[in-house]
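A student in our group prepared the protein record below, which I am reviewing. This is what I was given:
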Amino acid sequence: MPPAWISPRGILSWRGGKSAAVERGSACQLPFADSSFDYIYSHGVLHHIDTPKLAIQELLRVLRPGGRFNVHVYALWSESAAIYFVKHGRDWKRHVENSTDPVHIELYTGRMLRRLFAPIKLDISKHQSYHFPTLSKWTGFFLVAKGRKPDSA
C-alpha cells in the first residue's frame, strides 16, 4: 500500500468512505487481544516479513479457535517472477514493488507454506497470471493458503 494510504483517512478513502477501525502495528506483534477475530485476510504481507513464523504465530494468536484465514504470498515458480528476472536480472526484486529501494521479498512454494503453518492443514491454490490466465493454477504470481485454526489450539 502506498504510504499515504496507511492512515485512517487513506484507508477510509480506499474503502469508499465506509467506517472502519484502523490500527497500525507490526504483523509480528499485533495490537489485538487473543482470539479477537473470526476471519483474517492477508494479501501481500507475509512475503515481506523476514520472520514469517513469528507473524503466523501472531495471526493464530488473534484468531479465535475454529476461525479461518486466507493468506496470499508471492509464488517462487511463476510467470511474473520469470518475467521480472529476465527484465531486471539478479536485481529483479528491487522492481516488484514499484520502487528500487531495497525491500524484503520471499518467494514461496506450497511446501514452504505448509511447513510454516504446520500442523494446520492448508488448501493452497495459485492465482493471477497476466499473460496466460488459463494457466494461472501453474504460472500464477500468488499462492493462496486457506486454513482454519484448530478448535483446541
In short: The two ends are 32 Å apart (CA to CA). DSSP finds five helices and four strands in the chain.
